[in-house]
Amino acid sequence: MSDVQANEPRAVSVGVLKGGFGKTTTAINLARELGHRNERALLVDLDDNGHMTLILGHDDAYSGDRWGTNHAADVLLDGEDPQQYITSVADGLDLFPSHVELEDVQSGLKEATMGTTRLKQELVDELLGEAYDYIVIDCPANRGKLNDNAMYATGNIIIPLRPENGYETGLTNTVQRLVMDAREYFDLNILSVVPTDLSTRIDQETRDRALLREMTTREAVAKHVPNFAYLSESDWAKVDSGGYDGPLPGIRHRAAIDNANDEGVPLRDYDSECDQLACYDELAQIVETGEVAR
Questions:
Q1: CA triplet 228, 234, 238: central angle to 5 degrees?
Q2: In Å, how far are 86, 122, 147, 246 from 128, measured between CA atoms?
Q3: pTM (2 decimals)?
Q4: pLDDT band at 1; cut points 50, 70, 90
Q5: How far apart are the first and last CA of the chain?
């Protein structure tokens, strides 16, 4: 058992050093479940492409038209109150949006005194435990000061992976270039490694199977795989013998997840009966307790 304390206010980064791996979808639906369970959760879009902000329909915040200012710079560089730039997403869930000039903020953080600590100092410490019980940060898919700020501010990371070419590189680069590099300077816990958007069978040589085998048999990774995605060696033996009768592991591809993104709402608010909500609920429990519990 780790020394984390369960059910205390907690911030978490959702990040992987590769685009198109379900990072934003994971962050939105994790935060929605945390808000559903606890009533007070905040999403922070720290990705300079603003994908989350745009999905959720806040184009004018991303473009700068809503407030007539670069709100990310105002908060992270100039120390303004972040609450004036927070907008509602759903019951119990709010958003601090991205901005089209977020790359300029990253450049400013490189020059700023204590530039790696600004997100923690100006936003997370201001809001966590006061206005919100949980903060979920959608990180950029590249190294830089914004990612450094997210890692330092949260001390926790969830790594989503999709069964696509390059998942091995995405996982290895994220662990080595984000997690291990950060641990030279501060504590950073991997809360979970999450397989997303799986759609094929696992009793044949598919990408789904390859991804799940890699995750569940690699010792350093397997302990972070949620129960909804974990298969033991005995489970794999049953899969290969045709005797496995459990649910297919991982967050499975569902049209409802894509449709929810198209409609600009979290999955719960699009289809409250979708079977994959149970996966996001378990992820929320992992954030609440601070670890995967077998």
A1: 85
A2: 14, 11, 19, 38
A3: 0.94
A4: very low
A5: 11
